[in-house]
Each structure stands twice: as structure tokens, then as C-alpha cells.
Design goal:
The protein is of the alpha/beta class. The protein has helices at 2-14, 19-26, 41-46, 76-86, 103-115, 135-154, 160-186, 193-202, 208-224, 247-255, 282-293, 307-317, 332-347, 365-379, and strands at 31-34, 50-53, 95-99, 120-124, 233-238, 258-263, 322-325, 352-354. It is 49% helix and 10% strand. The strands form two sheets. It has a four-stranded parallel β-sheet, sandwiched between helices. The radius of gyration is 20 Å and the shape is globular. The structure holds iron/sulfur cluster.
Length: 381
């Protein structure tokens, strides 16, 4: 069963025609694209619509038109997502949500609005001052605005009851993803990061009700696997929260001797450290979860929880030996934070390595050599 699930997951992840979402659409459903990092998927789900992870074109998209809309020094995800739109591959979207993660996402949202007038484009302004007394009120009002707009897309009232039911479903989904992460952290020989990533990312491309049973069954199979531990170093991967690295690059890290025991791949889809509150007004619960229950991130501004302290905590909790800092090329939030992270890691005497990537990276030999050298320097020191 597991092999079949992983093959299906890989098929979905590598397919930029979004075939499962197209089936949903053909059956009369509506589809809402979720550009990274965090999107309140519960609002979409509660309207009976499919939240679809839109994270660029990977290796499959040749840029023909998008280059002319952006400067050359912009991350790949912005250009390839726009190109997917120009090539008609995002024609299935009824709406797409962007958020205030960086200037590039802000511009992309505007370019989308101008070029695809038939699609509802919304832009979420997340709070920048988490210690303000009004921050949860503000976040709640922003979520209410987005919900009201989504109601016009789906033609259904997104009532509190519907939203509360969606919170339960997504809490269950995130709990299963967290269980898989915990298994990989505790027994990394039983589940590789490529397997975990494919399975996890497939869930951003299909209805959550279909994905939950796959997660449950896969988790049981991974747990019962027998595998001997290898001679590897334990690493945390940081900075891949938005644009996603090629799967081949993750494979190279693992083959070069890294057990990835924590990462921030697709971080926004598991943004909360604790479940969203299941009692009380649901918009308020979602707002409070963002303000008080979400993880540290380079695109979340919160001086109460310093990001570099968050990284050090993550290293300690996962019992990691080192950090692989893996930002997308030209990703400003990640690259600016590298300075802060590096300083904190050096103070804590935690070894680290920088591995920059682009979506369309074909050869990994130089990276393989660098990672192997890094691993050997730690294993045989
Ligand atoms: S990869 Fe970085 S710069 Fe590009 S859209 Fe995402 S957060 Fe912004």
C-alpha cells in the first residue's frame, strides 16, 4: 500500500496540470489557489471549495512570458507561478490568495489581478506588530474580510458552524503530519525526507478528506518498518518555507549522509505549534492561532519570539547536530535572516552549511561534494 501511495503522491507533486484538482473542478467544485507561505485553508474548506497549493512550476515550466513582468533578480517561484497562469495551467482557479510575506508576493498578487481578471485575487495583510493590544482583533477582521470575499466566490454562507467543522478536520490533518514529523525525528531510518515530503505535499493538491486516510495508513506502515540506522549526521533544514527545492536536492542531502530530522518545507501548511482552538467563535480561534500559536518564520514578524531563538530551540528539540540553511536564490526574507541565524548558531557552537537552490536546478554534483565534505568533517572529527 505504501509504495502505491508514494508513487501516487510523486505523480501529483510532479504534475503541474493539477489533475486531481481538475477532476474536482469537472465535478462542479470550486478551486482556490494558496500561494505560500500561510493561508487559512479552513476558510476555503468551509465554503466547500478545494484549497490548492500553488508553489511554482518546479522543473516543468519554461519561462516564455513571465520574465518580461519581473526583474531578473527575483525568486523562481514568482516567475514560474505567473508562467503557469499565462500557459493556462491555472485556468482551473476560481480564486487565489497571496499574503504579505515579501515585496515579490505583493507584486505578484497585483500582476495576477491585472492579467487574470476572471479570477478572484485576494491579498492577506498579516499583522506586523504582534504585541499590540489590538492584534487579535485586527487579524480577526482581516480573516472576516477574506471570508466575506470567498463567500461571493463559492455562493455559500461560510457560517461559524461550517468553519468550526473545518477547523476540526484541518487540526486532524496537521496532527497526522506532526506525527509523521515526530516519527522521522525519533527514528529517521524508518522514513526518509523525500517520502515524507511527497506524502505531505500531495495533501496540498487533493481534498483533505481523501488525504487523511492515506496519512493514517501510511503512518501505520512507516511505524512498523524495520530499518537499521545509518552513519549519518542529524540536520535541521531551514529557509525553504516558500519556494520549494527540487526533490533531487533533498535526495542529495540524504544520500550524502544527512538525516533531516526537522525542516521548514511547506511551512505554512503546518504553521501552528498547537491545534487551532476548537471551542468558541472560529474566526477568533483562527486569529488567535496565528498570533499566539504559530511557529517562528522569516515571514512572520514577532519580537516576542525571536526567530533565531526559535531555530536554536528547534535544533535542540530535534537533537540535531547541524543546520543546513537552504534558501531559494533571491529570497530576501530568507537571505536577510541568514545573518541573524548564522550569528546565533555560531554563538551556540552549532555547525551550519549554506546550500542555495533554484527550482530549475538540474545538476547537484557541486552540492553533493559540499554536503559530503561537511558530513565527513563532522562524522570523523
Ligand atoms: S521565495 Fe522568498 S522572495 Fe520569493 S515569494 Fe517566497 S518569500 Fe518572497
Amino acid at each position: 500500500m505504501l509504495t502505491e501511495v508514494l508513487e501516487r503522491s510523486r505523480g501529483l507533486v510532479e504534475d503541474t496540470t493539477y489533475r486531481r484538482a481538475l477532476d474536482w473542478k469537472k465535478a462542479g467544485g470550486k478551486v482556490v489557489g494558496c500561494f505560500p507561505v500561510y493561508t487559512p485553508v479552513e476558510l476555503i474548506h468551509a465554503g466547500g471549495m478545494l484549497p490548492l497549493g500553488v508553489v511554482g512550476g518546479g522543473t516543468s515550466v519554461e519561462l516564455a512570458h513571465a520574465d518580461s513582468r519581473f526583474q531578473s533578480f527575483v525568486c523562481s517561484i514568482a516567475k514560474s507561478t505567473l508562467e503557469l497562469g499565462f500557459q493556462g495551467r491555472l485556468g482551473l482557479l476560481d480564486a487565489i490568495l497571496f499574503s504579505s510575506i515579501c515585496d515579490v508576493a505583493r507584486n505578484l498578487s497585483s500582476v495576477f489581478k491585472r492579467n487574470f481578471p476572471g479570477v478572484h485575487v485576494d491579498y492577506l495583510h498579516y499583522p506586523q506588530n504582534m504585541s499590540s493590544a489590538g492584534v487579535i482583533d485586527y487579524m480577526e477582521s482581516e480573516l472576516r474580510r477574506v471570508r466575506d470575499n470567498l463567500q461571493r466566490v463559492c455562493g455559500v454562507e461560510i457560517s461559524d458552524d461550517r468553519l468550526s467543522a473545518s477547523i476540526l478536520v484541518w487540526n486532524r490533518w496537521r496532527a497526522l503530519i506532526a506525527d509523521l514529523y515526530a516519527l522521522r525525528r525519533d527514528e529517521p531510518q524508518k522514513i526518509s525526507t523525500v517520502e515524507l515530503y511527497l506524502l505531505f505535499r500531495a495533501g496540498t493538491l487533493m481534498p483533505v478528506e481523501e488525504h487523511i486516510p492515506l496519512l493514517e495508513a501510511s503512518l501505520a506502515e512507516f511505524r512498523s518498518r524495520t530499518a537499521k540506522p545509518r552513519d549519518c549526521i542529524r540536520v535541521v533544514v531551514e529557509a525553504a518555507f516558500c519556494e520549494q527545492p527540487p526533490i533531487g536536492l533533498i535526495e542529495v542531502l540524504e544520500e550524502a549522509g544527512c538525516y533531516i530530522v526537522d525542516d521548514d518545507l511547506l511551512r505554512g501548511w503546518r504553521f501552528f505549534d498547537t491545534p487551532v482552538g476548537e471551542e468558541g467563535p472560529p474566526l477568533r480561534s483562527l486569529a488567535a492561532a496565528y498570533v499566539d500559536g504559530s511557529t517562528y518564520s522569516s515571514v512572520r514578524h514577532d519580537w516576542r519570539k525571536k526567530r533565531w531563538e526559535g531555530l536554536i530551540d528547534r535544533v535542540r528539540l530535534s537533537r540535531a547536530d547541524a543546520v543546513i540553511f537552504m534558501p531559494a536564490k533571491f529570497c530576501e526574507p530568507a537571505l536577510f535572516d541568514y545573518v541573524l541565524y548564522r550569528e546565533a548558531l555560531e554563538k551556540a557552537s552549532i555547525p551550519h552549511l549554506m546550500v542555495e537552490f533554484e527550482e530549475k536546478m538540474w545538476t547537484f554534483e557541486r552540492t553533493r561534494n559540499e554536503v559530503e565534505t561537511f558530513v565527513e568533517s563532522m562524522l570523523f572529527d
